[in-house]
């Protein structure tokens, strides 16, 4: 058996012995991932990377859509299965049980090339009362990345930087080598500009030179042994390095920092020795070969050293970049040699900006515990800086955001950070800039406030809009607070600043009392990871009772009085943001007892012992103690009927002397149907009832039906 096949066989044998142990404690017999038209399974595509099993799959786009199928060992034992949210993907639908055969869920990945520690985290709730079980399926995205060097220009000149474009199918997956890499006669580095990968080559020796360029990737590909491979195939290119028209003199320092010392005293450098170089002489270094160029620096030759080098003082006066072209070493106006090096300003931080999630760049250097921010440092010579931040975690992954004038970092503020001021340092030197840690101050929904106006408390956030009816005497209205709800786990809101407006009116909407409770500060409870930093004498403790505030006590309010309550965040504390909750507490009554005087007219009276339907009476007067009934879903609105008992003076206003006029007083039980209009002063109710004539000894019972007149004042 060939050696390569033997190695492959042994590897697969070893992998096969480990995979059963990996899946032994899993709730799933198989996990299948469908990406585009390709299907991957845990049993066939699990490999070992970074010392742990990971399920590998190939992708072409950063935002691939995938379907995940999970075949459980015991479908009946799983009561609920859910996939946790992640910053690496979006859930396109929820986990679905497909006919008790398998579970499926669809996701859309985000930035697969830059994502780290990609995995699916499933929460499995079985049919018992045991806590949910968490199962993590680690994923290894792999992609085929190609880089080609297609240029046929192979001529280089000593000391002259040349830039070539490289063709790649996935620029994001290439690790850029921004620093110069030294090789045999050719120095090179990589850069990215406008979505193009560039190769910079600086030759420093004559002849035919071979460049062996091996690039690294962020996401691997799999080799024939199914191992992750982060190195791309070596790109080999042969160049012909020619001598320039002038002798190129190498300086041992490729970059000089321009400061007061470099301008006056100079920087000690060494250059290659040449027979045309005179010692103890000052040479001008200009930016053009012709006379009259800009003075970039002066080179003073001091003495030779043993390695065929010349020790010199270099004084710099202007900035220069290697990419801007050659520098010319002149004796007076006569050009003697060419060279090239960079003269850059000293590292200076001029401005710092912060980008919060969902916001814009701001000069406000305030950050919150637990959040992830982008920090932009602007200035000069920043490519030479090495910035450190007190207690912050640097999670920056994109090196293309770092230039000579700007650097962008992605930083995580620890949830338990104890500092109030985060210093920013460059190589342990304070930049005089700092971030200020401020506790979260975000308005939270009112689920931490309860209102009690009867026998039980209600969460304010859950109280429905509309009137809240109370049928009994309102003993008090009490607001309670649950600080442990405000901050939970890593979701922080901070101190809650509240105002409560109270407006009390009677049944006619006349104002009885009006108060505002200000400066209510509810601090998060001891379960908050930032509890120790929320302390303060202004934190509101205990409940708030309206009877301790109102002049007219709640238990002294009349029926159909209303207490309008408005709870709002103090928007001055939240930059104009906040939540407002309005509640309308109404003292409802089901019935009302009153004495009513009305004037029935034209009553049809049926007397006991008489045949027929009775006679029509004249205008009578009734004084009734009656019960009125309120509509259960409307405020202070009567139902159209009343029931009562009292006295009826039949034909009380008939002053005729005719003996046919029957006047009498009877005790009656009466029901009335009233019009439901509220604004009418004059109404005509319909009466129905019966009674007992007080003056008659025989056949005193009678019944009546007819209209009446009712006047409201």
Automatic annotation (TrEMBL):
Superkingdom of source: Bacteria
Name under which the protein is recorded: Uncharacterized protein
């Amino acid at each position: 058996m060939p050696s390569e096949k033997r190695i492959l066989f042994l590897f697969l044998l070893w992998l096969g012995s480990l995979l059963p142990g990996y899946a032994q404690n899993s709730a799933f017999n198989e996990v299948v991932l469908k990406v585009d038209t390709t299907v991957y399974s845990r049993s066939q595509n699990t490999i070992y990377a970074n010392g742990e099993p990971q399920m590998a799959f190939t992708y072409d786009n950063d935002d691939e859509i995938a379907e995940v199928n999970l075949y459980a060992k015991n479908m009946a034992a799983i009561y609920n299965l859910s996939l946790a949210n992640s910053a690496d993907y979006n859930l396109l639908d929820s986990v679905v049980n497909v006919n008790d055969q398998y579970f499926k869920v669809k996701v859309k990945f985000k930035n697969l090339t830059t994502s780290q520690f990609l995995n699916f985290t499933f929460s499995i709730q079985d049919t018992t009362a045991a806590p949910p079980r968490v199962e993590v399926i680690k994923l290894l995205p792999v992609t085929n990345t190609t880089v080609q060097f297609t240029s046929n220009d192979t001529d280089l000149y000593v000391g002259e930087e040349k830039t070539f474009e490289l063709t790649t199918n996935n620029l994001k997956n290439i690790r850029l080598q921004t620093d110069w890499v030294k090789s045999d006669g050719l120095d090179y580095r990589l850069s990215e500009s406008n979505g193009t990968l560039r190769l910079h080559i600086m030759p420093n020796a004559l002849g035919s030179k071979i460049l062996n360029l091996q690039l690294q990737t962020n996401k691997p590909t799999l080799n024939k042994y199914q191992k992750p491979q982060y190195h791309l195939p070596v790109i080999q290119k042969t160049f012909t390095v020619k001598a320039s028209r002038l002798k190129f003199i190498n300086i041992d320092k490729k970059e000089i920092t321009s400061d007061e010392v470099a301008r006056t005293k100079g920087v000690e450098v060494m250059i290659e020795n040449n027979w045309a170089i005179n010692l103890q002489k000052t040479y001008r270094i200009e930016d053009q070969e012709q006379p009259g160029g800009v003075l970039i620096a002066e080179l003073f030759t001091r003495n030779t050293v043993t390695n065929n080098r010349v020790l010199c003082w270099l004084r710099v006066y202007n900035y220069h970049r290697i990419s801007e072209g050659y520098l010319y070493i002149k004796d007076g106006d006569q050009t003697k040699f060419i060279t090239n090096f960079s003269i850059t300003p000293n590292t200076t931080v001029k401005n710092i900006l912060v980008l919060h999630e969902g916001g814009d760049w701001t000069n406000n250097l305030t950050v919150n515990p637990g959040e992830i921010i982008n920090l932009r440092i602007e200035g000069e010579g920043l490519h030479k800086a090495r910035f450190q931040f007190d207690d912050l975690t640097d999670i920056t992954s994109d090196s293309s955001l770092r230039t000579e004038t700007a650097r962008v970092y992605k930083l995580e503020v620890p949830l338990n950070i104890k500092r109030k001021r985060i210093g920013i340092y460059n190589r342990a030197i304070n930049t005089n800039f700092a971030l200020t840690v401020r506790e979260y101050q975000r308005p939270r929904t009112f689920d931490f406030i309860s209102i009690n106006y009867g026998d039980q408390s209600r969460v304010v956030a859950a109280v429905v809009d509309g009137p809240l009816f109370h049928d009994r005497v309102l003993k008090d209205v009490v607001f309670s607070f649950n600080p442990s709800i405000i901050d939970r786990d890593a979701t922080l809101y901070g101190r809650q600043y509240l105002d409560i407006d109270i407006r009390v009116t009677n049944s006619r909407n006349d104002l009885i009392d009006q108060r505002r409770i200000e400066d209510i500060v509810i601090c998060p409870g001891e379960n908050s990871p930032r509890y120790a930093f929320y302390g303060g004498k202004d934190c509101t403790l205990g409940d708030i009772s309206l009877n301790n505030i109102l002049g007219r006590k709640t238990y002294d309010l009349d029926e159909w009085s209303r207490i309008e309550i408005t709870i709002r965040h103090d928007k001055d504390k939240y930059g104009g943001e906040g939540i407002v909750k309005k509640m309308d507490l109404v003292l409802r009554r089901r019935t009302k007892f009153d004495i009513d005087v009305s004037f029935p007219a034209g009553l049809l009276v049926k007397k006991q012992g008489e045949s027929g339907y009775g006679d029509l009476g004249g205008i009578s007067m009734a004084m009734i103690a009656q019960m009125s009934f309120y509509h259960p879903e409307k405020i202070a609105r009567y139902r159209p009927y009343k029931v009562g008992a009292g006295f009826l003076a039949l034909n009380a206003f008939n002053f005729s002397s005719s003996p046919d006029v029957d006047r009498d007083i009877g005790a009656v039980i009466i029901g009335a149907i009233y019009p439901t209009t509220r604004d009418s002063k004059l109404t005509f109710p319909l009466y129905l009832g019966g009674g007992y004539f007080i003056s008659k000894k025989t056949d005193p019972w009678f019944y009546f039906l007819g209209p009446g007149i009712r006047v409201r004042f």
